Amino acid sequence: MDTRKLKYFLAVVDHEGFNRAAEHLLIAQPSLSQTIASLEKDLGVPLFHRIGRRAVLSEAGKELVGPARLVMRDLDAAQSAVKALRGVRSGQLDIISMPSPGIEPLTSMIAGFTRLHPSVRLNVGAAFTPEEVIESVRTGSTEIGLAGSPTPIRVPGVQVLDLERQPLILIVNPQADTFGADEAIQREDLGGHRLIASQRGSLMRWLVDDALAHGVDTEIIVEAAHRTSILPLVLAGVGHAVMPSSWAPLAHKSGLRTLLIEPVSHLDVAILSRKEDLTPAARAFLKVAELHVARDMQATEPPARSIG
């Protein structure tokens, strides 16, 4: 088995078929098919099921994806390390993030990372549950994962760095703002209001469902799986939205008001990675994350009191 075969295999996976993969690789489709057939012969198992013009991963193919990405990533890291001796830094870093951590702190960390390492390309994928992030990091599909959970994340065999705690806030529909001048509301104050809610399983949806279960007369008017649509829906006057505080800066720039919801519920945000075999780019990104945590700790420390 050689890395060219693995590269071609991953191209078929990423481009969901032989034709588009061949176009991406700038080779003839029959040549790509022969290479994959040779790889399957090397391994002794089929990697794809051919269904019409579609190529669907077999169980063996699914198992190969993570290790193949790890091999290609390590090869890229080795090439980057050699280039670094000539003063050139390059490569690619694969990241996966849930939506709210993808707003912040990921944006700030990427900004800091790209200033230090402008030649490294970042590939950011999407996940909607902590379990998806954990699985992606464990299998090697990605090196870095950002996840948010109602409780701190602890996973055997995975390195976890706690980044921050994001309190849940209400992004206020300006067409139905009857909350007064205070900066916080009680959950009971949601009564009589229409809400845009995340899908079931999220902390934000749990808060809304918990309020409903305790007799708060609120109404879910929209259930939005795509959270990028939530701010436009609030701006359009459809309803209020319960979101983590990472969304507050965008809401404020859009002219929307936010209120802390009491009693406060927090989204615990963490960055996940393998404990070993990380590329230089991944290690550098973790250093940026550690600096982010250090700055947050300094910002939240109470000022020193003078004596005398």
Topology diagram in text:
Layout: H1 3-14, H2 18-25, H3 29-43, E1 48-51, E2 54-57, H4 59-84, E3 92-97, H5 99-103, H6 106-116, E4 121-126, H7 130-139, E5 144-149, E6 158-171, E7 184-186, E8 194-197, H8 203-213, E9 219-223, H9 230-235, E10 240-244, H10 248-253, E11 258-262, E12 266-274, H11 280-300
Parallel strand pairs: 3-4, 3-5, 7-11, 8-9, 8-10
Antiparallel strand pairs: 1-2, 5-12, 6-10, 6-11, 6-12
Helix pairs in contact: 1-2, 1-3, 1-4, 2-3, 6-11
- Please indicate the percent range of residues in DSSP E strands (runs of 2 or more): 15-25%
Spans of at least 5 consecutive residues with low confidence: none
Output the radius of gyration.
Answer: 23 Å
Total helical segments: 11
What is the quaternary state of this protein? single chain
